[in-house]
Amino acid sequence: MNKYILSLLIFVSATLFGQQKDYSIQAVNFTQVKLTDNFWLPRIEINRTVTIPASFERCESTGRVKNFVMAAEAKGKFCTTYPFDDTDIYKTLEGASFSLAVHPDSRLEAYIDSLITLIAKAQEPDGYLYTARTINPAAPHAWAGKERWEKERELSHELYNSGHLYEAAAAHFQATKKRNLLNIALKNADLVCSVFGPNKRRVAPGHEIVEMGLVKLYRITGKREYLATAKFFIDERGRYPDYDHTSTDSWKSGAYWQDDKPVTKQTEAEGHAVRAGYLYAAVADVAALTGDDSLLKAIDQIWTNVVEKKIYVQGSVGAIGDGERYGNNYELPNSTAYNETCAAISNMYWNQRMFLLHGDAKYIDVLEKMLYNGLISGVGLDGKSFFYTNAMEIKNSFQHKDLEATRSGWFECSCCPTNLARLIPSIPGYIYAQKEDNLYVNLFINSHSDILIRNQKVEVVQQNNYPWDAALVFHINPVKATSFNLLVRIPGWAQNIAIPSSLYLFQNEVMAKPVIKINGQLIDYSLQNGYAAINRTWNRKDVVEVFLPMEIRRVVANEKLKDNLGKVALQRGPLMYCAEWMDNHGKTSNIILPRGTNFTSEFTSDLLNGVMVLNAVVPAVNIQNNENVFTQKQTFRAIPYYSWANRGKGEMMVWFPEQIKGIDLLAK
Ligand code: FUB
Ligand code: ZN
To answer: Which atom of ligand 1 is nearest to the CA of 413?
Structure first.
């Protein structure tokens, strides 16, 4: 039986017999978790008060809103650069909706409604919504093609725009219960479902996200056509098998679009990294909702490939600038690392879904690594300056043209700032998850939550000073004594595991083990898939304390990462560290971190909004009178990677040589 018929049968039988398949684990909704956290609450607040207003303001001042005005009037000339510029409005609307859900704001709501009214006017009568064509269908954007959808596989982004519209509409509906944006999205989705399908127009969308968006609309409406179309788009991949690993133009081949092999045959993360992350997240959704094991097997293999061979030590992915794509296995150069912020965001969505599928803490270990490092490095402490690329090193002697050493308020292609605007307010939704009477604690963020377990309301309160230290306190207050299994993630980094693969290792083993007390008494616990499982009857005022050994760790890379041979990086808890010129005598490319260096940590409240710094005295290579090379001991300070580039421009390093091994003499 061919693959297509088999998956259709699975799908149809699930529909006929009304099976309600889904993730067996469900995340506790972000609206149920009220943050009190010193690390995350200010970030969410600055996102609400600075990032979201600044994004809306930029959407206005750059002409993105004007594009909708012109589309509504069907006159004028598309006035921004990219056909996907509409999505900056959708993503900001999504972030603003998440924010409204926990922080009512009638002015913001009214502004959102005015944008939605405009979007509705820009929508064509049959549901089509794409300002780059509607403004003047006789002269659409150069990437759009003469007819609707004809360039969808390449660069039109018509379905990408739809996907972000659906994501925004789902968030807005859930936050406000209003249907104004949802109705626009449903009308568009109905059009998409009527145009695309097995016996209709066939395409693998040129930039994934419509699949995830359709799944969200399916969850809201129960309309199986949305899920079927999401699955159809996934199943359509694999028509351009021209992937040549060795070609410098490989990004132009099917692999760039994850379209060189059917998804079920893909084993390696490939092509444009943001596209890939959204595809894998959607595959997880569709696998969960249909029970299609072949899809599940594919993303399991691809995940292993990323974690074993394609992820930077600070959690970024998408190493190669040319094509904004994954490199080959172990191709993780430092000096040209691209690491688009959106790629980290799409991987966060994917890793959360992998956890919901499998209930294994390793996915949250990776998610946490991304979130606390290569993802939030994308936004400056001011909430309005951003990185599109996230560098691994900045050297005065070499600056690649594509890589940023300073942040910008906006970009011509401004996908990353608006993606951050939507991701950050949803973070409380990543803290807890539930499967029947199992309560998973994934992230350690101060908060109060009311969670229903065995039909009993259980208040869970977290108190800690994470990520600066790892003495974690959980107050468990069921209304009535209730038995359930509390599963507290014991991060890999607290078990001498730098990443769930051999790509990075801790050089120094820490002997201390995580310790858990209940109501002051030490307990024995067993680890289940990376979680300490505490199954008991919980009573009001029960207190769980978890002590994770949070030492300064020296991280070394697999020898296949040629760029990191003989080098070391620094980690403490979930945070990766870097050194900036400013704290290190004006330079970082001359610093050596020999084995045996004694590091101390110190919380510095007046630096970078308060950070734990790592201090040491280390040798640095210097040159005297342009002829004598010598090393000299000097003070060394490292800061969390996410906080770099908030104090101006200069050198920055993550990986440091452990010793001098030859010197290059450069003639100028
Ligand atoms: O193509 C839309 C977005 O623009 C992508 O996700 C980013 O990588 C940028 O190319
Ligand atoms: Zn981006």
So the answer is: 4
3-state secondary structure of 542: strand
pLDDT tens-digit readout, 66-79: 999 999 999 999 99
Q: Any idea what DSSP says for residue 50?
A: I
Contact 568, 555 (CB under 8 A): yes
For residue 84 and ligand 1, the question of a CB distance below 6 A is answered with: yes
Return the domain boundaries, the chain. 37-221, 432-547, 552-657
Q: Give distance in angstroms: CA of 509 to centre of ligand 2.
A: 37
- Candidates 161, 340, 349, 386: which one to mutate for ligand 1, based on the most atoms within 8 Å of Cβ? 340
Residues 415, 416, 551, 651: which is the catalytic one?
415
Distance CA 575, CA 466 (A): 10
Q: How far is the CA of 342 from the centre of ligand 1 (A)?
A: 8
Q: Would you call 413 a catalytic residue per the annotation?
A: no
Model pLDDT, residue 499: 98
Average the pLDDT over 30-35 and give the result.
Answer: 96
pLDDT band at 397 (very low <50, low <70, confident <90, very high): confident
Spatial separation of the C-alpha atoms in residues 182 and 188, rounded to whole Å: 10
User: Ligand 1 in contact with 338 (CB < 6 A)?
Assistant: no
Place of tokens 């039909």: 455
Interstrand relation of 600-604 and 611-624 (parallel, antiparallel or unpaired): antiparallel
Indicate whether residue 637 lines ligand 1 (CB < 6 A). Answer: no
CATH of domain 432-547: 2.60.420
Query: What are 363-374's pLDDT values in tens digits?
Result: 999 999 999 999
33-80 pLDDT, tens digit each: 999 999 999 999 999 999 999 999 999 999 999 999 999 999 999 999
Is 393 an annotated catalytic residue? no
Residue found under tokens 């924010």: 99
pLDDT at 250 exceeding the cut of 60: no
Determine whether the shortest distance from the Cβ of 268 to ligand 1 is under 6 A: no
In DSSP terms, 521 is beta-bridged to: 518
Residue 392 clears pLDDT 60, i.e. is over it: yes
Ligand 1 contact, 372 CB (< 6 A): no
